[in-house]
Amino acid sequence: LAKTTQPISMDSYEGQEVNITCSHNNIATNDYITWYQQFPSQGPRFIIQGYKTKVTNEVASLFIPADRKSSTLSLPRVSLSDTAVYYCLGSLNTDKLIFGTGTRLQVFP
Amino acid sequence: GAVVSQHPSWVICKSGTSVKIECRSLDFQATTMFWYRQFPKQSLMLMATSNEGSKATYEQGVEKDKFLINHASLTLSTLTVTSAHPEDSSFYICSARDRQAGGLYEQYFGPGTRLTVT
Question: Can the peptide bond before residue B8 be classed as cis, meaning omega within 30 degrees of 0?
Fold first, then answer.
């Protein structure tokens, strides 16, 4: 299971693009990188998952460089409702998930 | 996506009593479920892995006799906090793993259960 490091917190304003970078220097060859979003008093919600290069879905993009030692979650044009904690995890797709500290994103009007 | 439910969503109990929390996968079968605990302003801490039809696997430092886990069917896992004490007050979250098309697995999380021990 890869150990991940993320910024503790980030601030942004509505309409801006937010990029949250996660370091996972010891990621294993078979590990996937997954990002979750959590609102207060709720369970985490899956955002996006990738192995390499770029993955995009309806809510976010995930950029993973060739060495896979880091990844960047990109949230386009954030709104107030994107205020949440974002977790980056690196693990085997079939393995248990170990959560790190996460990044607390605060979006201001 | 798949849905995981938890019951109850919140519970208050007296010190020394036991509390059972249910985790259900509503529209898929989950051979593996996970239980997490989360204290305020902290991250999720994995407590145990629950496997259908077999004993749960507990993480280091988690007392298996205090946190009883039963995974009796492919859609239900229960966590019983025995002889609860105020320090057991926390937010308990379960997740269930579902295999996707293409072979990848995705974990779906329940909404959590807020336990307060008085």
Answer: yes
List pLDDT tens digits, range A64-100: 999 999 999 999 999 999 999 999 998 766 678 888 8
For chain A, say whether B1 makes contact (Cβ under 8 Å): yes
Give the per-residue pLDDT at B102.
65
Return d(Cα A97, Cα B48) in angstroms, integer. Answer: 11
Q: Are B107 and A46 inside 8 Å of each other by CB?
A: yes
Q: Residue B17 and residue B6: Cα distance in Å, rounded?
A: 20
Strands B10-13 and B113-117, by their bridges, are: parallel
User: Does the beta carbon of A86 lie under 8 angstroms from any beta carbon of chain B?
Assistant: no
Give me the sign of the Cα torsion angle A26, A32, A33, A34. Answer: negative
Q: Do B43 and A99 touch (CB under 8 A)?
A: yes
> pLDDT per residue over A23-42, tens digit each?
998 888 888 899 999 999 99
Distances (CA, A) of B52 to A39, A57, B31, B36: 29, 32, 5, 17
B60: contact with A, CB 8 A cutoff:
no
